[in-house]
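Supplementary Methods, section 5.1.

A reviewer requested that the exact input to the structure prediction be made available. We therefore reproduce it here, unchanged from the version used in the analyses.
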Amino acid sequence: MMKPLITSLFFLLIFITCSANAQHLKIPQRPVNALRGSAFVATIRDSMLSPVERERLMLKEVGQGNVPDFYRNFLPVIATATIEGKLFTIKYFVAPDYLVIGSDDDYFYSPLTAAAAQKIADKLDCSLPTRKMSNRIYQSAIFKLTPEPIPPSMRMITVPVFEDHNGLVHQQLDRIGAKPGSLVAGNKKDVVISNKITAADGSLSVVIYGWHKPDGKAIQPLYNGHKYDWVDYSHGIRLVQNQVYLNGRKTTIKKILKSKTLHVLLSDEGVIRMPKYPVN
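The structure derived from this sequence is encoded token-by-token as follows.
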């Protein structure tokens, strides 16, 4: 009797360990007839959609589960801080890459406005990262890409440039042998949550940060100079599960960011008063 019991305990321990180090995105299975990434981007490029119509279509694709299988497994990122003389450890789970539409072998990086990104995050019980989280995610990444900026122009907000940059990122992923499902960073700027979302006069801005270079320094400082509906090819949407583990106990990103003491685990801006983008 002892041997079967030991075997059962061994596999139970393996299961618990694996569960603690990966989380599965709650999203429908990818439809068998779903568009691959290249087919989807051709649709939004050639149909002359307005930016609003384009985003509606992107939201629909994600909502129906048209994301790669590898994107569904969220990976742990761990941070620590000593607060009032006590060591705290937080574990949160992040998407392995920026939001993509398509299949495992043919997917398209999908820049979105802040409001659209928040809609997807809300639907999937997720958050967007803070600046501090963006830094920690980059430090934790297995594959760190080198940023490949495209010269600025008004074309940077158009689908053809989205597609051009998508190709540059995929070429680099192939060159470095990045394994789909591993934590990847350095390929986009983050759309982040921040106290800079809302100005003193109540106006809203998208806040961006990141695009880390190989030396770990971010090309883009925390910036809220764009209008709320601005989106260009460089913007990436990194989803983070709302549920986190603080010293092994479940809590949420919102509670941590609003805490007068614990916010330092996830924020270098102090308490985040409104830890999400308004959605109309």
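Helices lie at 2-20, 37-46, 51-63, 114-123, 131-140, 159-176, 253-258. These observations are discussed further in the main text.
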